[in-house]
Amino acid sequence: MITANETAKLVVCFSLTGNTRLVAKTMAKEIDADYTEIVPIRQYPLRGAYLYIKGGKEAVFKSEPAIEAGIVRYEDYDLLIVGTPVWAGTMAPPLRTFLKSPALRGKKLFLFCTHGNGPGSCLRDMREIAQGDVVGDCDFPMGRKAAAESIGQAKILGNKLRER
Ligand SMILES: Cc1cc2nc3c(=O)[nH]c(=O)nc-3n(C[C@H](O)[C@H](O)[C@H](O)COP(=O)(O)O)c2cc1C
């Protein structure tokens, strides 16, 4: 039950192989926020060369693939914590579709991404197209050595966002 002076928070992400989901769910738990995922109507292959060809090409060419409408009522939330994997140095294409959605107008957005080597221009690109008011961002390295530390960071960040 949300009282009048509480901010209703939602963590929402796209995740193909689970890294972004892990960070997102870690934050959602710390913040005590609701959680949902962005689901593209046409699925990507989970691995293999074709994933990198199709996913990389779509990311570079700024595709906006159709995403499922879902059952979440975005109007019920004040702060959305929005996450994506980095694909070809930018956001994964389903995020491009999501961030341009008129349903985000007037919302506060905190943006994050997960990656193997570096965020590239992902967070900057997300800020550029996001409807809504971006209040902060963060990137999480998820390579073998960095992942555990990133999950620790996600907990700390979740605690900070809890107070917003
Ligand atoms: C198509 C594709 C392109 C990628 N491009 C990059 C990249 O440019 N830079 C990078 O650091 N990681 C890149 N990665 C790795 C992912 O960003 C990283 O593994 C991420 O944490 C995956 O998140 P997920 O498990 O939630 O899908 C790419 C992965 C895929 C599948």
Write the layout of secondary structure elements.
Elements: E1 9-13, H1 19-31, E2 34-37, H2 49-60, E3 79-87, E4 90-91, H3 93-99, E5 108-115, H4 122-129, E6 133-141, H5 147-162
The structure holds flavin mononucleotide.
Flavin mononucleotide binds next to helix 1, helix 2, strand 3 and strand 5.
Q: What does the model show?
A:
By secondary structure, the protein is of the alpha/beta class. The protein has a single domain (9-162), classed as Rossmann fold (3-Layer(aba) Sandwich), CATH 3.40.50.360. 34% of the residues lie in helices and 23% in strands. The protein has helices at 19-31, 49-60, 93-99, 122-129, 147-162, and strands spanning 9-13, 34-37, 79-87, 90-91, 108-115, 133-141. Strands 1, 2, 3, 4, 5 and 6 form a six-stranded mixed β-sheet that branches. Helix 1 runs parallel beside helix 5 (147-162). The two termini are 17 Å apart. Residues 15-21, 51-52, 55-56, 85-89, 114-118, 120, 142 line the site of flavin mononucleotide (FMN). Flavin mononucleotide binds at residues 15-21, 51-52, 55-56, 85-89, 114-118, 120, 142.
Entry keywords:
disordered N terminus; globular; single chain; 34% helix; Rossmann fold; alpha/beta; 6-stranded mixed β-sheet; 164 residues; binds flavin mononucleotide; 5 helices
> What would CATH call the architecture?
3-Layer(aba) Sandwich
Bound molecules: flavin mononucleotide
What is the approximate shape? globular
Structure annotation, total helices: 5
